[in-house]
Write a structure and sequence with these properties.
The chain has 298 residues and is of the alpha/beta class. The chain has twelve helices and eleven strands. The strands form four sheets. Strands 2-5-8-1-9 form a five-stranded parallel beta sheet. Strands 3-4 form a two-stranded antiparallel sheet. The protein has a two-stranded antiparallel sheet with strand order 6-7. Helix 1 crosses helix 2, helix 9 crosses helix 12 and helix 10 packs across helix 11.
Length: 298
């Protein structure tokens, strides 16, 4: 698999956001899930669709609303008159890439149905367990500035997301090219498949084999310890968070063409793995705390 080719192909549609594409691909190859916090209209759907098309993966988009039910995500059993029995109809969760749009607009019960599938990569309906496809990658979005009619994800559920990123506004020159070139969503169909699903599955196995030396493992543990000791932090990084930091570092090293992790891989992925997990004191900025922690460890 050629990660550079994937980034270049997606960037034909999602202009000026190469870093966001790289870290989304990092999260996918680490078999994690991605949370995108940003205002509407900056390319979150475009990123998800472009990745799925370029990687030749099945895609589903779920618009989360207050009346969305768990069965709308997982699927339900329907009585088949011709067969005289109930038949399970798969929900949109049975796709390789699932875009959970505005996840914080659904009730906690519905959110839990998605998060259970993310954690266990399976769903259970009417006592029967169904495995989800591999790779299985959830991209969830939420608007951090709009809180009316929302059900914010608690820390325990935020911890299920390996990484959190923001796309932000493009540079003025790039934005001018976007508005003169037409809607990027309409050009997704022009993207070509860069890799096959078999190559992706092979890449997932190769990422797991990327070597973390004892020295780099000590570095990761130093970062974890500082998140728990920082005076501005109430709850530091969990063990799952430490594991996700290691997995993301492996994946970024693989994308960069190495079979071993170096400190730069850890420092580059850490802000996207740590910031949404830690609980800080009132008035303290999470991103600023993470910067301080990484500078201290460096």
């Amino acid at each position: 698999m050629d990660p550079k080719a994937v980034v270049e192909e997606v960037s034909k549609v999602l202009r000026g956001k190469e870093n966001a594409v790289i870290y989304a691909l990092t999260c996918l190859l680490a078999e994690g899930h991605l949370l995108i916090e940003d205002v509407p209209g900056v390319g979150k759907t475009t990123l998800a669709l472009s990745l799925a098309k370029t990687l030749d993966l099945s895609f589903a988009r779920i618009q989360f609303t207050s009346d969305l039910l768990p069965s709308d995500i997982t699927g339900t059993s329907v009585f088949d008159r011709s067969r005289g029995e109930f038949v399970f109809k798969e929900g949109p969760i049975f796709n390789n890439v699932v875009l959970a749009d505005e996840i914080n607009r659904a009730t906690p019960k519905t959110q839990s149905a998605l998060l259970e599938a993310m954690a266990e990569k399976q769903v259970t309906v009417d006592g029967v367990t169904y495995l989800l496809p591999r790779p299985f990658f959830v991209i969830a979005t939420q608007n951090p500035l709009e809180h009316h009619g929302t059900y914010p994800l608690p820390e325990s559920q935020m911890d299920r997301f390996m990484m959190r990123i923001s796309l932000g506004y493009p540079d003025p020159d790039v934005e001018k090219e976007i508005i003169t070139g037409g809607d990027p969503l309409s050009r997704i169909g022009e993207l070509r498949r860069v890799v096959s699903k078999e190559e992706i599955l092979q890449a997932l196995s190769e990422v797991k084999k990327v070597y973390i030396s004892p020295e780099v493992a000590d570095l990761i543990m130093s970062v974890v310890a500082e998140t728990r000791n920082h005076p501005g932090v109430v709850v530091g990084l969990s063990t799952r968070g430490a594991l996700h930091l290691a997995q993301a570092s492996r994946s970024l090293a693989y994308i960069r063409g190495r079979d071993f992790v170096v400190p730069e891989d850890v420092f580059d992925t850490a802000p996207f793995v740590i910031a949404h997990r830690i609980r800080v004191r009132d008035g303290v900025n999470r991103e600023k705390v993470v910067e301080e922690i990484l500078e201290l460890v460096k």
